[in-house]
């Protein structure tokens, strides 16, 4: 997770847009109940969310 926040710091320092996504709830049987993901403007992401289906809305 340190990598996630290091990238967020660097993007913020460069004044580049990003979103920090936090999973606060889930539905069904999954291996983890929480996690975080940083999504860059181009749609690429860095994630600590493992084993989840990630969909763009």
Question: Could you explain how this protein is built, in words?
Answer:
There is one protein chain. This protein is elongated. It has 57 residues and is α+β, with helices and mostly antiparallel strands. The protein has a three-stranded antiparallel beta sheet, covered by helices on one side. The protein contains one helix and three strands. It has one domain (2-47).
Instruction: Assign an overall shape.
Output: elongated
Quaternary assembly: single chain
Instruction: Specify the structural class.
Output: alpha+beta
Q: In sequence order, what are the helices and strands, one letter per element? A: HEEE
Give the strand tally: 3
> In order across it, which strands form the biggest sheet?
1-2-3
Mean pLDDT: 79
Radius of gyration: 12 Å
Measured as a percent range, the helix fraction is 10-25%
Tell me the count of domains: 1
Short description:
The chain is an alpha+beta fold. It has one helix and three strands. It has one domain (2-47).
């Amino acid at each position: 997770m340190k990598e996630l926040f290091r990238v967020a710091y660097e993007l913020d320092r460069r004044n580049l847009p990003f979103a920090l996504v936090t999973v606060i709830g889930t539905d069904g049987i999954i291996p983890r109940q929480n996690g975080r993901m940083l999504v860059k403007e181009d749609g690429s992401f860095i994630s600590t969310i493992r084993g989840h289906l990630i969909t763009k809305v």
